[in-house]
Amino acid sequence: MKLATAAYPLSWLDSWAQYEDKLADWVAQATGQGAQLLVFPEYGAMELSSLDGAEVAGDLERSIRAVSDRMEEVYTLHRRLAVKYNAYILGASAPVNAGQGRPVNRAAFYAPSGGQDHQDKQIMTRFERDPWNIAPGGPLKLFDTALGRIGVLICYDSEFPLLGRALSEADLILVPSCTEALSGYWRVRIGAMARALENQCVTVMASVVGDNDWSEAVDRNTGMGGVFGPPDVGFPETGVLAQGRLNRPGWTYAEVDLDAIAHVRADGGVLNRSHWSEQDPRVESVTLSRL
């Protein structure tokens, strides 16, 4: 299969039609290159707050509510694009009112059939806890698709190995991210590459890029697209199948072979995924006397 993962710049939007055109252009470009799975980044939907004007977009709490209020329209648009272009699409995540008091960070997943589901972020970063006050969402899911089994770890979630292990049956783990600094980008990238190593699978990282002085929520962003696998038989020695250029908007493409994933899991140079259970606690407390 061919994947496309986005380094996505947010736009100031003067109309809903402008947003529709932007998304349609991005999807058409990726599918025109043969991509069957498209991955947009975390909090890419925050650009929708600009539709309510500068005062709302510049206010954290009001921008969160404004984006959440538009998500039904967003879902309808993405379902239409997934069907029209015969592609799976992980939409940009957004703060979504899920009926539990505070919004969750939710990425919707769309199928070419018109079907839709979602993945919520599990563990909040410091800024999502305070001042955003975003709540943890529903459980991790494993999506069975025509392209294989797909899981999603939203940004910070990719930095936790037990969350990755919960998706050990996934062939692909999608990692939509939104990181302000280069250090944040690398934390998520290292997490994504580690999950690919441990699970002997492919991870697909998307990023928000660029500066947006009109937004309090997503004013500074650093990243690029990347696709990673285990550095083992059938994969590049670096584990990097593809990567974009830092902070340059656009799609990064990669070809992924499910047979290669199955082969490295069965007969790789190492068998991290199969040997996971051998990590049973081995720590012993030892006191060394002074010499």
From TrEMBL:
Q: Which GO terms describe its molecular function?
A: hydrolase activity
Write down the superkingdom of origin.
Answer: Bacteria
N-terminal signal peptide: none
Keywords in alphabetical order, please: Hydrolase
In terms of Pfam families, this protein maps to:
CN_hydrolase
**What sequence ranges are listed for the domain CN hydrolase?**
1-258
Its name, as the record gives it, is Predicted amidohydrolase
- Write down the species: Ruegeria intermedia
